[in-house]
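Researcher: Please translate sequence to structure tokens.
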Amino acid sequence: MLFMAVIIFILAVVVQSVFAFTGEPGSEEDPIVTLSYLKSQISELESYIARKINDILDKGVAIEQPQTSFVVKQLFKGEGLIGDEGTELILRSGEATAVGNIDGDGVSDVTLGVDLKMGEKINRNHLLIVPRKDGRGIVAKTDSWIMVKGKYEIK
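Model: Translation complete:
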């Protein structure tokens, strides 16, 4: 019985010493996060985000909206339409041929799934895509109407 009492006493001392070395609630070892602390941190974060947004807006960062619909343009005989990267074209009436780049690459006819090289005839109502801004487009052989979406230049 005495042996059992000694063991219980030793265990009690060990347990007490373990709890004595752990941090007290609210101390650096065991911090308590309060509502006021959270509110101050959130307020600082909101201020930081607002400053960053204002910095971006003050710098005048241009955010360009993509053109989302086709525009109908008339090309007169001999005029060319040179597209930027991603420009979409549809020949609605008239006759036109493809304009390629220096390397011989052409305009993508996604309706047929082919690459139209320099001088190849463009079929009406086929969707064409200019893959890069490198001088590709179309030239009107007769007065023509074109639907175009994206950036382009008429020459």
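Researcher: Any highlights?
Model: The longest helix spans residues 35-58.
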